Each structure stands twice: as structure tokens, then as C-alpha cells.
Amino acid sequence: MRLRRALVALTVLLGGLLAGAGGAAAATAPYCGITWGSTAKSGGALSSAPLVEVRAGQHDCWDRVVFEFAGPANGFSVAYGETYTEGQGLALSPYTAGGALLRVSLRAPAYDASRVATVPYRTGDHAVNALGYRTLRDVVFGGSFEGYTTFAVGVRAQLPYRVFVLAGPGTHSRIVLDVAHKWQA
């Protein structure tokens, strides 16, 4: 009899634990199905296709920054942390709005073969107007040196993000950075 009571009690206890674990899993479901994470991401190779435009957009679940190149470009390195200007090594954090900073290094120049700038920004300039965005706070140009171009992307907090490459329009290419509005539903 005691053994039977102990088994019933153990069964009830295990059932409660399993039910609680299922409820916890449902409570921590990813926001909009996003499973990107916030660790460093990199890929692609060095390109000579110059950066020609930087723009931003909003989605229901994330904010987006698009870097467009005049030709094929696919090299990038993105991670949370301090961003330094290319060639000078000055920290951009004092000049970038946001609670967290994504350092974006594009493996392509922001100048053409004649060394003429292909974007209208100078080091330290704000490249995007992020007014009204849920996550994006700032995009600051960190310069371009020896084929690498740097941006400090200020966001509200350290949130999941993804980076990917798109072909087009025409012969152009784009490196896209999406930052989620939050971690969980």
C-alpha cells in the first residue's frame, strides 16, 4: 500500500513537472519565429565593388539596414561591441545613439578605382535617419580604408540579428542587416 501511494505521488509529481516544463517552453517562444541569436556573424570575401548607398527600413518584427554596392559584394563581419574608425582607430561609441552597438565591417570600399568617394558620408557622419524606428537608433559611418568599410549601428538593446546577401537590382548587390524588435513573444 505504501509503495502504491509513493508511486502515485511520484507520478503526479513528474506529471506536474512535465506540464510546467511545457508551459515554460511556450512562454519563451521566439518573437515572430526569430531564431537568429546575437553572436558574431561573418562571411564572404573582399570585393572591389564600391558601396553606393545605405538605407533603412522597418518590418513588423525587425528593423533593417541595407548596404548597396555597385557590383558583386558579399563580405561582412558583424558583432556586438565597440566600433573603431577605419584607418584612425577612434572609438565611435561616444557618437552613436543606442543602448548597444553593432560593429559592421564590410569587405568592400566606399570609393571607386580612382579613390573618389562613392557615398556622401565623412567619418563620423550619421548615414540613416532612424527617427521612429522600434530598434534601430543610429547608423554612423566609420570610414573606408584599404578596401574595408566600417559602420557603427546603434540599436535599443543587444537583440537577435541576422546578416545576408542579396543580388540586384541589376548588377548591384546588397548586404542586409536585420535586428529583431525583441527576443521573445
Largest sheet: 5 strands, antiparallel
Q: Number of helical runs? A: 1
Cα-to-Cα separation, first versus last residue: 47 Å
Which structural class do the helices and strands define? Answer: alpha+beta
Tell me the quaternary state: single chain
Strand content: 25-35%
Shape: globular
Structure summary, number of beta strands: 9
- Regions with pLDDT < 50 over 5+ consecutive residues? 12-26
Average predicted local confidence, pLDDT: 88
Search tags:
185 residues, alpha+beta, 5-stranded antiparallel sheet, 4-stranded antiparallel sheet, 14% helix
Mind explaining what this structure looks like?
By secondary structure, the chain is an alpha+beta fold. 14% of the residues lie in helices and 35% in strands. The protein has 1 helix and 9 strands, in the order αβββββββββ. Strands 1-4-5-7-6 form a 5-stranded antiparallel β-sheet, with no helix packed on it. Strands 2-3-9-8 form a 4-stranded antiparallel β-sheet, with no helix packed on it. The chain is globular, with a radius of gyration of 22 Å. It starts with a helix and ends in a 5-residue tail after the last strand. Mean pLDDT is 88; it is low at 12-26.
